[in-house]
Design brief:
The protein has 313 residues and is α/β, with parallel strands linked by helices. The protein contains twelve helices and seven strands. It folds into two domains: 135 residues, no CATH class; 161 residues, no CATH class. Helix 4 links the parallel strand 1 and strand 2. The structure holds S-adenosylmethionine (SAM).
Length: 313
C-alpha cells in the first residue's frame, strides 16, 4: 500500500495526473448533500444555543464542487455568503442546477437526509425532521419569494468579490471577508487538508463579529489511503511529503487535540466537541515518530464535530 501511494505521489509530477484525483466531484455536487450538510450545522448550532435565528453572513471554507451549502444558507435567510476555497472547483452550471433543486427541497420542507442516504456524513442532530421552529413558514415565504430567488440567481451568474455571493480561490491573502463581518464560519471535510491551521483559525476569529461562531466537521482518518483508518500516522514526514507529490492540498494528519488547542489559542470558547471514536488499528511502535506520543484520546478519535464561539474580552 505504501509503495502504491508513493508511486502515485511521484506520478502527480506528470501533468494532468493530480487533476485525475482532485478533479473528481466532491459531495457538494449533490443538492441533497448540501441541504443535509447545511441543515445539520444549522440545527446543531441551534441545539447548542448559538443561533436563535438563522445567521446573516455565512463564510464557508472549502465548498468544493458547488456553493450549495451557502445557497442553502441564503434560502434559510442569510443575506451574504462568502466561499473560500484552495482551488477553483465549483462551476456556474452546477451551481445553477444545485440551486434549483435546493429551492424544491425547501419548498417541500423535506426532512434532513440522514444516514440511510449519506452513511458517512456527520454531524448527527437529535432529529432529522425539517427544523420548522428555526425556519418557520413566515420566514421561508420571504426567503423563497420569486423576486429574492431571482436576485440569488443573478448573483450566481456574476460571482465576484462583491455582492450577495462572493468567492476567492485560493483565498489566502485575499481580503474577501471583512474583519468582524461574519456570523457563522463553517466547513465540511476541509480542515483535515488545511496546511496552515493556526493562521486559518486566526483568520476565522478575525472574520467573525463578537459572539459569532464556527462549526466544523473534520475527518481525522486516512481517508482510505491506507489499509487501516489510522495508517496515515505510520508515514514519516518525508514519506508523507513524497506521497503528497504535487497535489494542491493533502491531509495534514493533525489529530483532534491540535484543533482544540488552536481554537483556544485563536480566542474561541469551545461549545461542542463531538468525537467519533474508533479502536486504533496500529500500536504505538508502528506509528511514525511525530505521532508516537499522541495521547490515547487522539489515537481513538476518527472524526470530530466542533462548534466554538468568538470570545469577547
Ligand atoms: C473533500 S473536499 C470537501 C468539499 C466540500 N466541503 C464537501 O463536503 O463536498 C475538500 C475541500 O477542501 C478544500 N481545501 C483544501 N485546503 C483548503 C484551504 N486551505 N482552505 C480552504 N479550502 C481548502 C479543497 O479545495 C476542497 O474543496
Amino acid at each position: 500500500m505504501k509503495i502504491r501511494q508513493l508511486a502515485f505521489g511521484f506520478a502527480t509530477y506528470i501533468p494532468g495526473v493530480s487533476r485525475l484525483v482532485y478533479g473528481q466531484p466532491t459531495g457538494t455536487a449533490s443538492a441533497r448533500y448540501c441541504y443535509s450538510v447545511w441543515l445539520r450545522h444549522l440545527v446543531m448550532a441551534h441545539e447548542n444555543g448559538l443561533c436563535p435565528a438563522p445567521p446573516r453572513v455565512v463564510v464557508e471554507l472549502g465548498p468544493g464542487s458547488s456553493f450549495g451549502v451557502g445557497l442553502a444558507a441564503l434560502l434559510s435567510g442569510a443575506e451574504k455568503y462568502r466561499a473560500l476555497d484552495a482551488t477553483r472547483i465549483a462551476s456556474r452550471p452546477r451551481n445553477q442546477e444545485v440551486f434549483d433543486e435546493l429551492v424544491g427541497l425547501f419548498r417541500r420542507r423535506e426532512c434532513i437526509p440522514d444516514e440511510s442516504e449519506f452513511p458517512r456524513v456527520k454531524p448527527t442532530p437529535r432529529s432529522f425532521a425539517f427544523p420548522t421552529q428555526l425556519l418557520p413558514d413566515d420566514l421561508l415565504r420571504k426567503t423563497l419569494d420569486e423576486g429574492r430567488l431571482e436576485s440569488i440567481r443573478a448573483s450566481l451568474r456574476d460571482v465576484g468579490t462583491s455582492g450577495m455571493i462572493t468567492h476567492a480561490a485560493p483565498w489566502v491573502g485575499s481580503s474577501l471577508v471583512e474583519a468582524g463581518s461574519a456570523d457563522f464560519v463553517l466547513s465540511q471535510a476541509v480542515l483535515e487538508y488545511v496546511e496552515d491551521l493556526a493562521d486559518t483559525y486566526q483568520m476565522m476569529f478575525t472574520w467573525l463579529r463578537p459572539g459569532g461562531f464556527v462549526s466544523h466537521e473534520i475527518d481525522l482518518s486516512s481517508h482510505g489511503m491506507t489499509k487501516t483508518w489510522d495508517g496515515h500516522w505510520s508515514y514519516s514526514q518525508l514519506a508523507w511529503k513524497l506521497v503528497k507529490g504535487r497535489r494542491p492540498y493533502f491531509l495534514n494528519r493533525q489529530p483532534h487535540s491540535t484543533h482544540i488547542r488552536l481554537l483556544s489559542e485563536a480566542g474561541f470558547t469551545l461549545i461542542c466537541d463531538v468525537r467519533m471514536h474508533a479502536e486504533p488499528a496500529l500500536n504505538r511502535e508502528q506509528l511514525a515518530r511525530p505521532f508516537r506520543d499522541l495521547g490515547t484520546e487522539d489515537l481513538n478519535t476518527r472524526s470530530v464535530f466542533v462548534q466554538a464561539v468568538k470570545r469577547v474580552n
